[in-house]
Amino acid sequence: MAKTRPSVQKRKKEAAALEKRQAKAARKARRDAEKANRTDVDDGVDPDLVGIVPGPQPPIEW
């Protein structure tokens, strides 16, 4: 079996790195777009806790 030349291996490695950079940029653009479209919550309020009522919770109905 013949060994591949280093230039071929390097080209494949560079293509993989380019694809990874493009995917990372796409994820960042998606996050930025979601952040811009998100509705703002009052300052000092945790958005994960909005609507949660403290105290005993009603029983789960099956």
What's the arrangement of secondary structure elements?
Blueprint: H1 6-37
Q: What does this 3D model show about the protein?
A:
The protein is mainly alpha-helical and 62 residues long. Helices cover 52% and strands 0% of the residues. It contains one helix and no strands. It is elongated, with a radius of gyration of 25 Å. The mean pLDDT is 86.
Radius of gyration: 25 Å
**Oligomerization state of this entry?**
single chain
Strand segment count: 0
Task: Return the average pLDDT rounded to an integer.
Answer: 86
Largest sheet report = none
Q: In terms of structural class, how would the helical and strand content be classed?
A: mainly alpha
Q: Count the helices. How many?
A: 1
| Approximate helicity band | 40-55%
The low-pLDDT segments are none
The percent range for strand residues is under 5%
Report how far apart the termini are: 64 Å
Spatial shape: elongated
Q: From N to C, what is the helix and strand string?
A: H
Q: Which structural traits does this protein have?
A:
62 residues; elongated; mainly alpha
In short:
This protein is an all-alpha fold and 62 residues long.
